[in-house]
Every structure is written in structure tokens, then in C-alpha cells.
Amino acid sequence: MEITDEKIFKIALFTALIGIVGLLIFAGSVESKELKIKEIGKSMIGEKIAITGVLESVKSSSSGKSYFLSVNDGTGRINVVVFESSFLKFQNNGIDISSYVGEKVKVFGSVSEYNSAIELILDGSNSIKIIS
To answer: Whole-prediction pTM value?
Structure first.
């Protein structure tokens, strides 16, 4: 059996398609790792994580284009940044994020650093959920 360029191309194409289908199937099952706030450090900047804690406050920035949620899980407190685009989605869906104050929430976001403080950037308007 002779191996030709056409056969190599077909094998490579088939292998690539199987890989892409596998990625699509398993991409939905990849979850952010859930951490305690005290476990979050500068070495994790850029990672997507989840935290669970009580939403203590919601404040807007001086420009009014972003919002800061203070979340406390008993091991520490962290600011969660919500940019205007995500906040507008909350409003468009009839959700008043201020009504979450005092509630236990699960937050998904990316670890970031601003002015030497670790913070979490909210992934989107569906990245915060009230937990009972």
C-alpha cells in the first residue's frame, strides 16, 4: 500500500475533525474552579474562577460606567467589577443587582489586579447567581 499526499491529507483532515468535535462536546463541561477568597493570589491573574459568598454592597464608579460588588465568604472580601455592558444586560432583563445585597451568591469571573489589589471581573450578566 502506497502512502500518497492525498491519503495523508484525508487522515489529517479526519483527525482534525474528530478533535474539533471532541472539543465542542467537552467544552460545555469545563467549569471554573471554585475557591475561597483567601486562596486567590497574584499568580492566578487571568484565570477564570468561581467564588461563593454574601454580596455586601454595590457601588458605582465615579464615571458611572462600572460597578463594584463587595463579596465576603468569611475568609476574606473581594471586589467584583461589573462593566457597563454587563450591568445594562442586568437592567434589560429586569434585574436590580442592588436587590442581591445580603444574599448568598455564586460569582464567576476572571482574576485581575488593579492598584495592587486583587479583584474579580464578572464574566457576564449570567455570571452571578443567588444561592439558597
So the answer is: 0.72
